[in-house]
Amino acid sequence: MEALSMLAEGFGHAFTPMNLLFVLIGCLLGTAVGVMPGLGSSMAVALLLPMTFALEPSAAFIMFAGVYFGGLFGDSTMAILLNTPGQSSAIASTFEGHKMARSGRAPQALATAAIGAFIGGMISCMVVVFLAPALAAFSTSFGPAEYFALALFAFIATSSVVSDSALKGLTALLLGLGISTIGIDSVTGTERFSFGVPQLFDGVSLVTVTVAILALGEVFHIASRVRRDPTSRLLRPKGRPFLSRKEFREALPAWMRGTAIGLPFGVIPVGGADVPTFMAYGAEKALDKRRKDPQFGRGAIRGLAAPEAAGNATTGTAMGALLALGLPVSSTAAIMLAAFRQYGLQPGPLLFERAPDLVWGLLASFFLAMIMLLILNLPFAQVWAKLLLIPRPYLYGGIAMMCGLGVFATSSSAFELFLLLGVGLLGFAMRRFDVPLAPLLIGMVLGPLSETSLRDALLSSGGDYSVFVAGPISLAIYGLLIGAIALVVFGRIRNRRRGTVVEQGPKADVDA
Protein backbone atom coordinates (compact mmCIF):
# COMPACT_ATOMS: atom_id res chain seq x y z
CA MET A 1 0.00 0.00 0.00
CA GLU A 2 2.93 2.32 0.62
CA ALA A 3 3.96 1.90 -3.02
CA LEU A 4 0.48 2.92 -4.18
CA SER A 5 0.49 6.03 -1.99
CA MET A 6 3.91 7.01 -3.32
CA LEU A 7 2.69 6.39 -6.87
CA ALA A 8 -0.28 8.67 -6.21
CA GLU A 9 2.14 11.40 -5.15
CA GLY A 10 4.13 10.69 -8.29
CA PHE A 11 1.03 11.22 -10.43
CA GLY A 12 0.53 14.56 -8.70
CA HIS A 13 4.06 15.49 -9.72
CA ALA A 14 3.77 14.16 -13.29
CA PHE A 15 0.38 15.80 -13.93
CA THR A 16 1.83 19.31 -13.99
CA PRO A 17 1.35 21.01 -17.38
CA MET A 18 5.09 21.15 -18.16
CA ASN A 19 5.72 17.51 -17.29
CA LEU A 20 2.74 16.44 -19.38
CA LEU A 21 4.21 18.45 -22.25
CA PHE A 22 7.58 16.73 -21.84
CA VAL A 23 5.89 13.30 -21.85
CA LEU A 24 4.14 14.23 -25.10
CA ILE A 25 7.33 15.58 -26.68
CA GLY A 26 9.22 12.44 -25.71
CA CYS A 27 6.53 10.16 -27.13
CA LEU A 28 6.42 12.13 -30.38
CA LEU A 29 10.20 12.20 -30.79
CA GLY A 30 10.61 8.52 -29.88
CA THR A 31 7.92 7.40 -32.31
CA ALA A 32 9.18 9.68 -35.06
CA VAL A 33 12.73 8.38 -34.73
CA GLY A 34 11.54 4.77 -34.35
CA VAL A 35 9.69 4.77 -37.69
CA MET A 36 12.87 5.67 -39.56
CA PRO A 37 14.76 2.54 -40.66
CA GLY A 38 18.04 2.03 -38.86
CA LEU A 39 17.22 4.43 -36.05
CA GLY A 40 15.66 3.61 -32.70
CA SER A 41 15.04 4.68 -29.12
CA SER A 42 18.71 4.36 -28.15
CA MET A 43 19.75 6.82 -30.86
CA ALA A 44 16.94 9.22 -29.93
CA VAL A 45 18.01 9.25 -26.28
CA ALA A 46 21.65 9.67 -27.31
CA LEU A 47 20.81 12.68 -29.48
CA LEU A 48 18.66 14.25 -26.76
CA LEU A 49 21.20 13.66 -23.97
CA PRO A 50 23.40 16.72 -24.64
CA MET A 51 20.36 18.92 -25.30
CA THR A 52 18.54 18.41 -22.01
CA PHE A 53 21.12 19.66 -19.51
CA ALA A 54 19.23 22.95 -19.22
CA LEU A 55 16.12 21.09 -18.00
CA GLU A 56 15.27 20.01 -14.49
CA PRO A 57 16.24 16.35 -13.88
CA SER A 58 12.61 15.21 -13.52
CA ALA A 59 11.59 16.87 -16.80
CA ALA A 60 14.59 15.40 -18.65
CA PHE A 61 13.99 11.85 -17.45
CA ILE A 62 10.26 12.02 -18.09
CA MET A 63 11.11 12.99 -21.67
CA PHE A 64 13.67 10.17 -21.92
CA ALA A 65 11.06 7.67 -20.74
CA GLY A 66 8.65 8.85 -23.44
CA VAL A 67 11.40 8.46 -26.04
CA TYR A 68 12.26 4.98 -24.72
CA PHE A 69 8.68 3.70 -24.99
CA GLY A 70 7.93 5.65 -28.18
CA GLY A 71 10.95 4.22 -29.98
CA LEU A 72 9.67 0.68 -29.48
CA PHE A 73 6.23 1.70 -30.78
CA GLY A 74 7.76 3.33 -33.86
CA ASP A 75 10.04 0.38 -34.66
CA SER A 76 7.01 -1.83 -35.14
CA THR A 77 5.42 0.50 -37.68
CA MET A 78 8.31 0.11 -40.12
CA ALA A 79 8.73 -3.58 -39.34
CA ILE A 80 5.13 -4.12 -40.46
CA LEU A 81 4.85 -1.68 -43.36
CA LEU A 82 8.34 -1.86 -44.86
CA ASN A 83 9.73 -5.12 -43.46
CA THR A 84 12.54 -2.95 -42.05
CA PRO A 85 12.71 -2.93 -38.24
CA GLY A 86 14.09 0.21 -36.65
CA GLN A 87 16.17 -1.94 -34.28
CA SER A 88 16.72 -5.61 -33.55
CA SER A 89 13.93 -5.85 -30.94
CA ALA A 90 11.37 -5.48 -33.77
CA ILE A 91 12.80 -8.18 -36.04
CA ALA A 92 10.43 -10.88 -34.78
CA SER A 93 7.46 -8.61 -35.61
CA THR A 94 8.40 -8.60 -39.31
CA PHE A 95 7.80 -12.33 -39.79
CA GLU A 96 4.01 -12.29 -39.56
CA GLY A 97 3.36 -8.54 -39.33
CA HIS A 98 4.65 -7.78 -42.83
CA LYS A 99 2.69 -10.72 -44.24
CA MET A 100 -0.46 -9.24 -42.70
CA ALA A 101 0.33 -5.91 -44.34
CA ARG A 102 0.96 -7.45 -47.76
CA SER A 103 -2.35 -9.29 -47.58
CA GLY A 104 -4.21 -6.00 -47.08
CA ARG A 105 -4.41 -6.15 -43.28
CA ALA A 106 -1.90 -3.39 -42.50
CA PRO A 107 -4.30 -1.41 -40.25
CA GLN A 108 -5.12 -4.53 -38.23
CA ALA A 109 -1.41 -5.36 -37.94
CA LEU A 110 -0.61 -1.84 -36.70
CA ALA A 111 -3.49 -2.01 -34.22
CA THR A 112 -2.27 -5.40 -32.98
CA ALA A 113 1.21 -3.98 -32.43
CA ALA A 114 -0.06 -0.83 -30.66
CA ILE A 115 -2.44 -2.68 -28.34
CA GLY A 116 0.15 -5.38 -27.60
CA ALA A 117 2.75 -2.76 -26.75
CA PHE A 118 0.23 -1.00 -24.52
CA ILE A 119 -0.73 -4.19 -22.65
CA GLY A 120 2.86 -5.36 -22.19
CA GLY A 121 4.05 -1.93 -21.14
CA MET A 122 1.21 -1.25 -18.69
CA ILE A 123 1.53 -4.62 -16.96
CA SER A 124 5.30 -4.21 -16.66
CA CYS A 125 4.84 -0.71 -15.21
CA MET A 126 2.42 -2.05 -12.60
CA VAL A 127 4.93 -4.76 -11.70
CA VAL A 128 7.69 -2.16 -11.34
CA VAL A 129 5.62 -0.07 -8.90
CA PHE A 130 5.81 -2.97 -6.42
CA LEU A 131 9.09 -4.52 -7.59
CA ALA A 132 11.37 -1.46 -7.65
CA PRO A 133 11.11 -0.60 -3.92
CA ALA A 134 11.66 -4.27 -3.04
CA LEU A 135 14.70 -4.40 -5.34
CA ALA A 136 16.01 -1.19 -3.81
CA ALA A 137 15.62 -2.60 -0.29
CA PHE A 138 17.30 -5.84 -1.36
CA SER A 139 20.20 -3.97 -2.94
CA THR A 140 21.14 -2.48 0.44
CA SER A 141 22.68 -5.86 1.22
CA PHE A 142 25.04 -5.44 -1.76
CA GLY A 143 28.67 -4.67 -0.98
CA PRO A 144 31.64 -4.11 -3.31
CA ALA A 145 31.99 -7.84 -3.99
CA GLU A 146 28.31 -8.18 -4.93
CA TYR A 147 28.41 -5.14 -7.23
CA PHE A 148 31.51 -6.53 -8.93
CA ALA A 149 29.71 -9.85 -9.47
CA LEU A 150 26.70 -7.99 -10.87
CA ALA A 151 28.89 -5.98 -13.26
CA LEU A 152 30.71 -9.14 -14.34
CA PHE A 153 27.34 -10.80 -14.97
CA ALA A 154 26.30 -7.87 -17.18
CA PHE A 155 29.63 -7.91 -19.05
CA ILE A 156 29.63 -11.61 -19.89
CA ALA A 157 25.90 -11.90 -20.53
CA THR A 158 25.75 -8.98 -22.97
CA SER A 159 28.99 -9.84 -24.77
CA SER A 160 28.92 -13.62 -25.10
CA VAL A 161 25.38 -14.81 -24.41
CA VAL A 162 23.44 -12.35 -26.56
CA SER A 163 25.94 -11.89 -29.40
CA ASP A 164 26.04 -14.37 -32.27
CA SER A 165 29.83 -14.39 -31.96
CA ALA A 166 31.31 -14.47 -28.47
CA LEU A 167 34.61 -13.16 -29.86
CA LYS A 168 32.97 -10.09 -31.40
CA GLY A 169 30.96 -9.45 -28.25
CA LEU A 170 34.04 -9.65 -26.03
CA THR A 171 35.94 -7.42 -28.44
CA ALA A 172 33.23 -4.74 -28.14
CA LEU A 173 33.26 -5.12 -24.36
CA LEU A 174 37.04 -4.67 -24.16
CA LEU A 175 36.76 -1.55 -26.34
CA GLY A 176 34.22 -0.09 -23.93
CA LEU A 177 36.30 -0.98 -20.87
CA GLY A 178 39.40 0.46 -22.52
CA ILE A 179 37.67 3.76 -23.27
CA SER A 180 36.39 3.97 -19.68
CA THR A 181 39.96 3.77 -18.30
CA ILE A 182 41.30 6.72 -20.32
CA GLY A 183 42.33 9.67 -18.14
CA ILE A 184 43.83 10.27 -14.70
CA ASP A 185 43.26 7.46 -12.19
CA SER A 186 41.25 8.95 -9.34
CA VAL A 187 42.99 6.77 -6.72
CA THR A 188 46.67 6.80 -7.70
CA GLY A 189 46.74 9.94 -9.87
CA THR A 190 48.43 7.94 -12.64
CA GLU A 191 47.93 8.95 -16.26
CA ARG A 192 46.29 6.11 -18.20
CA PHE A 193 46.09 5.78 -22.01
CA SER A 194 45.87 9.56 -22.54
CA PHE A 195 49.16 9.62 -24.55
CA GLY A 196 50.05 13.00 -23.09
CA VAL A 197 47.00 14.74 -24.58
CA PRO A 198 45.72 17.23 -21.98
CA GLN A 199 42.13 17.04 -23.30
CA LEU A 200 42.04 13.33 -22.35
CA PHE A 201 43.17 13.79 -18.74
CA ASP A 202 39.53 14.00 -17.61
CA GLY A 203 38.60 10.94 -19.64
CA VAL A 204 36.37 10.50 -22.67
CA SER A 205 32.88 11.91 -22.36
CA LEU A 206 30.19 9.26 -22.38
CA VAL A 207 27.92 11.71 -24.25
CA THR A 208 30.45 11.94 -27.07
CA VAL A 209 30.83 8.17 -27.29
CA THR A 210 27.11 7.38 -27.27
CA VAL A 211 26.26 10.02 -29.88
CA ALA A 212 29.18 8.93 -32.07
CA ILE A 213 28.62 5.18 -31.82
CA LEU A 214 24.84 5.17 -32.15
CA ALA A 215 24.03 8.18 -34.33
CA LEU A 216 27.08 9.23 -36.35
CA GLY A 217 28.17 5.63 -36.92
CA GLU A 218 24.72 4.87 -38.33
CA VAL A 219 24.94 7.92 -40.64
CA PHE A 220 28.25 6.65 -42.04
CA HIS A 221 26.81 3.15 -42.41
CA ILE A 222 23.74 4.37 -44.32
CA ALA A 223 25.89 6.64 -46.52
CA SER A 224 28.12 3.71 -47.47
CA ARG A 225 25.14 1.62 -48.59
CA VAL A 226 22.80 4.22 -50.07
CA ARG A 227 23.58 3.21 -53.67
CA ARG A 228 23.36 -0.53 -53.01
CA ASP A 229 20.17 -0.74 -50.95
CA PRO A 230 17.12 -0.94 -53.21
CA THR A 231 14.24 1.35 -52.31
CA SER A 232 11.28 -0.60 -51.04
CA ARG A 233 7.69 0.33 -51.70
CA LEU A 234 5.84 1.45 -48.59
CA LEU A 235 2.52 -0.28 -47.98
CA ARG A 236 0.08 2.46 -47.16
CA PRO A 237 -2.28 1.49 -44.31
CA LYS A 238 -5.90 1.85 -45.33
CA GLY A 239 -9.09 0.84 -43.60
CA ARG A 240 -10.09 0.52 -39.96
CA PRO A 241 -7.25 1.03 -37.42
CA PHE A 242 -8.85 -1.32 -34.87
CA LEU A 243 -9.51 -5.03 -34.38
CA SER A 244 -12.78 -6.90 -34.67
CA ARG A 245 -13.98 -8.92 -31.69
CA LYS A 246 -12.80 -12.13 -33.33
CA GLU A 247 -9.33 -10.69 -33.98
CA PHE A 248 -9.11 -9.33 -30.45
CA ARG A 249 -10.02 -12.72 -28.94
CA GLU A 250 -7.44 -14.34 -31.21
CA ALA A 251 -4.68 -11.94 -30.15
CA LEU A 252 -5.46 -11.66 -26.41
CA PRO A 253 -3.88 -14.99 -25.30
CA ALA A 254 -0.74 -14.20 -27.30
CA TRP A 255 -0.50 -10.75 -25.71
CA MET A 256 -0.69 -12.33 -22.26
CA ARG A 257 1.85 -15.05 -23.03
CA GLY A 258 4.23 -12.54 -24.61
CA THR A 259 3.97 -10.26 -21.58
CA ALA A 260 4.74 -13.16 -19.23
CA ILE A 261 7.80 -14.07 -21.29
CA GLY A 262 9.08 -10.48 -21.50
CA LEU A 263 8.70 -9.41 -17.86
CA PRO A 264 11.70 -11.32 -16.38
CA PHE A 265 14.05 -10.14 -19.13
CA GLY A 266 13.73 -6.54 -17.98
CA VAL A 267 15.92 -7.32 -14.96
CA ILE A 268 18.27 -9.82 -16.64
CA PRO A 269 21.22 -8.19 -18.46
CA VAL A 270 20.91 -10.07 -21.75
CA GLY A 271 20.66 -7.17 -24.17
CA GLY A 272 17.12 -5.86 -23.66
CA ALA A 273 14.09 -6.87 -25.70
CA ASP A 274 15.80 -8.93 -28.42
CA VAL A 275 15.77 -12.32 -26.70
CA PRO A 276 12.18 -12.34 -25.33
CA THR A 277 10.66 -11.24 -28.66
CA PHE A 278 12.16 -14.26 -30.44
CA MET A 279 11.19 -16.54 -27.55
CA ALA A 280 7.58 -15.28 -27.68
CA TYR A 281 7.44 -15.76 -31.46
CA GLY A 282 8.88 -19.28 -31.16
CA ALA A 283 6.35 -20.21 -28.45
CA GLU A 284 3.41 -19.04 -30.57
CA LYS A 285 4.75 -20.84 -33.62
CA ALA A 286 5.06 -24.08 -31.65
CA LEU A 287 1.47 -23.70 -30.41
CA ASP A 288 0.27 -22.92 -33.93
CA LYS A 289 1.57 -26.25 -35.23
CA ARG A 290 -0.90 -28.05 -32.95
CA ARG A 291 -3.90 -26.24 -34.43
CA LYS A 292 -6.09 -27.84 -37.07
CA ASP A 293 -5.58 -24.85 -39.37
CA PRO A 294 -2.06 -23.43 -38.82
CA GLN A 295 -1.84 -19.73 -39.64
CA PHE A 296 1.89 -19.03 -39.39
CA GLY A 297 3.43 -18.09 -42.71
CA ARG A 298 0.17 -16.49 -43.90
CA GLY A 299 0.03 -13.48 -41.57
CA ALA A 300 -0.86 -14.96 -38.18
CA ILE A 301 -2.05 -12.28 -35.79
CA ARG A 302 -0.66 -14.24 -32.82
CA GLY A 303 2.79 -14.23 -34.42
CA LEU A 304 2.75 -10.43 -34.23
CA ALA A 305 0.88 -9.97 -30.94
CA ALA A 306 3.26 -12.03 -28.79
CA PRO A 307 6.59 -10.39 -29.80
CA GLU A 308 5.11 -6.90 -29.46
CA ALA A 309 3.85 -7.56 -25.94
CA ALA A 310 7.10 -9.30 -24.97
CA GLY A 311 9.31 -6.48 -26.25
CA ASN A 312 7.41 -3.75 -24.42
CA ALA A 313 7.05 -5.81 -21.23
CA THR A 314 10.83 -5.56 -20.81
CA THR A 315 10.85 -1.74 -20.86
CA GLY A 316 9.11 -1.15 -17.53
CA THR A 317 11.03 -3.79 -15.62
CA ALA A 318 14.27 -2.61 -17.25
CA MET A 319 13.64 0.86 -15.83
CA GLY A 320 12.92 -0.76 -12.46
CA ALA A 321 16.29 -2.54 -12.56
CA LEU A 322 17.98 0.72 -13.54
CA LEU A 323 16.36 2.77 -10.76
CA ALA A 324 16.70 0.18 -8.00
CA LEU A 325 20.03 -1.47 -8.81
CA GLY A 326 21.74 0.95 -11.18
CA LEU A 327 21.97 -1.96 -13.63
CA PRO A 328 21.47 -1.17 -17.35
CA VAL A 329 20.21 -4.18 -19.31
CA SER A 330 20.30 -2.56 -22.76
CA SER A 331 22.10 0.20 -24.63
CA THR A 332 19.19 2.62 -24.05
CA ALA A 333 19.24 1.94 -20.32
CA ALA A 334 23.02 2.44 -20.32
CA ILE A 335 22.57 5.89 -21.87
CA MET A 336 19.92 6.78 -19.28
CA LEU A 337 22.33 5.70 -16.53
CA ALA A 338 24.86 8.09 -18.05
CA ALA A 339 22.20 10.82 -17.95
CA PHE A 340 21.64 10.18 -14.24
CA ARG A 341 25.35 10.60 -13.63
CA GLN A 342 25.45 13.81 -15.65
CA TYR A 343 22.92 15.21 -13.19
CA GLY A 344 24.97 13.98 -10.22
CA LEU A 345 22.52 11.17 -9.39
CA GLN A 346 23.35 7.51 -8.81
CA PRO A 347 20.48 5.02 -9.28
CA GLY A 348 20.11 2.58 -6.42
CA PRO A 349 18.43 2.35 -3.03
CA LEU A 350 19.61 5.81 -1.94
CA LEU A 351 17.92 7.38 -4.97
CA PHE A 352 14.51 6.39 -3.54
CA GLU A 353 15.39 8.21 -0.32
CA ARG A 354 17.20 11.26 -1.70
CA ALA A 355 14.99 11.99 -4.73
CA PRO A 356 11.57 10.36 -4.16
CA ASP A 357 9.77 13.01 -6.21
CA LEU A 358 11.98 12.25 -9.21
CA VAL A 359 11.64 8.46 -8.89
CA TRP A 360 7.89 8.25 -8.37
CA GLY A 361 7.15 11.05 -10.82
CA LEU A 362 9.16 9.10 -13.40
CA LEU A 363 7.29 5.86 -12.62
CA ALA A 364 3.96 7.68 -12.93
CA SER A 365 5.03 9.13 -16.28
CA PHE A 366 5.43 5.57 -17.62
CA PHE A 367 1.67 5.08 -17.38
CA LEU A 368 0.99 8.45 -18.99
CA ALA A 369 3.41 7.64 -21.83
CA MET A 370 1.68 4.35 -22.57
CA ILE A 371 -1.73 6.02 -22.79
CA MET A 372 -0.40 8.82 -25.00
CA LEU A 373 1.36 6.37 -27.30
CA LEU A 374 -1.78 4.28 -27.76
CA ILE A 375 -3.71 7.44 -28.68
CA LEU A 376 -0.96 8.58 -31.05
CA ASN A 377 -0.30 5.26 -32.79
CA LEU A 378 -3.75 3.88 -33.46
CA PRO A 379 -5.06 6.72 -35.67
CA PHE A 380 -1.79 8.34 -36.84
CA ALA A 381 0.15 5.41 -38.32
CA GLN A 382 -0.22 6.92 -41.81
CA VAL A 383 1.31 10.19 -40.60
CA TRP A 384 4.36 8.46 -39.13
CA ALA A 385 4.82 6.48 -42.33
CA LYS A 386 5.11 9.72 -44.33
CA LEU A 387 8.35 10.57 -42.50
CA LEU A 388 9.97 8.05 -44.83
CA LEU A 389 9.33 10.45 -47.71
CA ILE A 390 12.15 12.71 -46.43
CA PRO A 391 15.11 12.20 -48.81
CA ARG A 392 17.88 10.25 -47.13
CA PRO A 393 20.63 12.85 -47.79
CA TYR A 394 18.63 15.54 -45.96
CA LEU A 395 17.52 13.20 -43.17
CA TYR A 396 20.93 11.80 -42.29
CA GLY A 397 22.69 15.09 -43.00
CA GLY A 398 20.44 16.68 -40.38
CA ILE A 399 21.24 13.91 -37.91
CA ALA A 400 24.99 14.43 -38.44
CA MET A 401 24.59 18.17 -37.85
CA MET A 402 22.64 17.51 -34.63
CA CYS A 403 25.42 15.20 -33.44
CA GLY A 404 28.05 17.90 -33.88
CA LEU A 405 25.95 20.70 -32.39
CA GLY A 406 24.93 18.61 -29.39
CA VAL A 407 28.47 17.58 -28.50
CA PHE A 408 29.90 21.08 -29.05
CA ALA A 409 27.13 22.60 -26.92
CA THR A 410 28.13 20.43 -23.94
CA SER A 411 31.92 20.81 -24.27
CA SER A 412 32.66 23.99 -26.32
CA SER A 413 35.75 22.13 -27.53
CA ALA A 414 36.90 21.52 -31.10
CA PHE A 415 38.82 18.49 -29.80
CA GLU A 416 35.51 16.84 -28.85
CA LEU A 417 34.33 17.24 -32.47
CA PHE A 418 37.42 15.44 -33.77
CA LEU A 419 36.89 12.77 -31.10
CA LEU A 420 33.26 12.52 -32.20
CA LEU A 421 34.41 11.89 -35.77
CA GLY A 422 36.95 9.27 -34.72
CA VAL A 423 34.54 7.32 -32.51
CA GLY A 424 31.88 7.64 -35.22
CA LEU A 425 34.23 5.92 -37.66
CA LEU A 426 34.75 3.22 -35.03
CA GLY A 427 30.97 2.79 -34.85
CA PHE A 428 30.84 2.49 -38.64
CA ALA A 429 33.57 -0.18 -38.59
CA MET A 430 31.71 -2.12 -35.90
CA ARG A 431 28.55 -2.15 -38.03
CA ARG A 432 30.56 -3.11 -41.11
CA PHE A 433 31.96 -6.20 -39.38
CA ASP A 434 28.80 -7.04 -37.38
CA VAL A 435 30.34 -6.24 -34.00
CA PRO A 436 27.55 -5.56 -31.45
CA LEU A 437 27.29 -2.06 -30.00
CA ALA A 438 25.58 -2.77 -26.67
CA PRO A 439 28.63 -4.47 -25.02
CA LEU A 440 30.78 -1.41 -25.78
CA LEU A 441 28.29 0.99 -24.19
CA ILE A 442 27.64 -1.21 -21.17
CA GLY A 443 31.38 -1.78 -20.74
CA MET A 444 32.02 1.95 -20.73
CA VAL A 445 29.14 2.71 -18.34
CA LEU A 446 29.79 -0.11 -15.87
CA GLY A 447 33.59 -0.12 -16.22
CA PRO A 448 34.18 2.50 -13.50
CA LEU A 449 31.72 0.74 -11.17
CA SER A 450 33.42 -2.63 -11.59
CA GLU A 451 36.89 -1.10 -11.11
CA THR A 452 35.87 0.77 -7.97
CA SER A 453 34.08 -2.28 -6.56
CA LEU A 454 37.10 -4.49 -7.27
CA ARG A 455 39.44 -2.11 -5.45
CA ASP A 456 37.11 -1.55 -2.49
CA ALA A 457 36.53 -5.28 -2.04
CA LEU A 458 40.28 -6.03 -2.05
CA LEU A 459 41.04 -3.15 0.31
CA SER A 460 38.39 -4.27 2.79
CA SER A 461 39.66 -7.87 2.72
CA GLY A 462 43.36 -7.06 2.87
CA GLY A 463 43.99 -8.34 -0.65
CA ASP A 464 42.14 -11.65 -0.13
CA TYR A 465 40.50 -12.60 -3.48
CA SER A 466 38.21 -15.11 -1.78
CA VAL A 467 36.02 -12.16 -0.77
CA PHE A 468 34.45 -12.28 -4.25
CA VAL A 469 32.95 -15.74 -3.60
CA ALA A 470 32.37 -15.43 0.14
CA GLY A 471 28.80 -14.12 0.17
CA PRO A 472 25.62 -15.96 -0.84
CA ILE A 473 24.52 -13.17 -3.20
CA SER A 474 27.79 -13.31 -5.13
CA LEU A 475 27.61 -17.10 -5.38
CA ALA A 476 24.01 -16.90 -6.61
CA ILE A 477 24.97 -14.37 -9.31
CA TYR A 478 27.89 -16.49 -10.47
CA GLY A 479 25.64 -19.57 -10.47
CA LEU A 480 23.09 -17.81 -12.68
CA LEU A 481 25.85 -16.70 -15.01
CA ILE A 482 27.27 -20.20 -15.36
CA GLY A 483 23.78 -21.59 -15.95
CA ALA A 484 23.02 -19.00 -18.64
CA ILE A 485 26.30 -19.67 -20.44
CA ALA A 486 25.74 -23.44 -20.26
CA LEU A 487 22.24 -23.12 -21.76
CA VAL A 488 23.47 -20.96 -24.61
CA VAL A 489 26.45 -23.23 -25.37
CA PHE A 490 24.21 -26.31 -25.31
CA GLY A 491 21.69 -24.62 -27.62
CA ARG A 492 24.34 -23.59 -30.13
CA ILE A 493 25.93 -27.05 -30.17
CA ARG A 494 22.50 -28.60 -30.75
CA ASN A 495 21.75 -26.18 -33.60
CA ARG A 496 25.09 -26.93 -35.24
CA ARG A 497 24.43 -30.67 -35.04
CA ARG A 498 21.00 -30.20 -36.57
CA GLY A 499 22.53 -28.11 -39.35
CA THR A 500 25.12 -30.82 -40.00
CA VAL A 501 22.41 -33.49 -40.19
CA VAL A 502 20.40 -31.40 -42.65
CA GLU A 503 23.47 -30.84 -44.85
CA GLN A 504 24.50 -34.48 -44.80
CA GLY A 505 20.99 -35.77 -45.49
CA PRO A 506 20.74 -34.82 -49.19
CA LYS A 507 24.31 -35.98 -49.81
CA ALA A 508 23.49 -39.41 -48.37
CA ASP A 509 20.44 -39.65 -50.62
CA VAL A 510 22.52 -38.79 -53.68
CA ASP A 511 25.18 -41.36 -52.80
CA ALA A 512 22.53 -43.99 -52.30
Automatic annotation (TrEMBL):
Protein name as annotated: Tripartite tricarboxylate transporter permease
Membrane-spanning intervals of the chain: 20-39, 59-82, 109-135, 147-163, 170-188, 200-223, 318-340, 360-382, 394-421, 469-490
DUF112 domain sequence ranges: 20-441
UniProt keyword annotations, A-Z: Membrane, Transmembrane, Transmembrane helix
Source lineage: Bacteria, Bacillati, Actinomycetota, Actinomycetes, Micrococcales
PANTHER family: TRICARBOXYLIC TRANSPORT PROTEIN
Pfam families: TctA
InterPro entries recorded: DUF112_TM
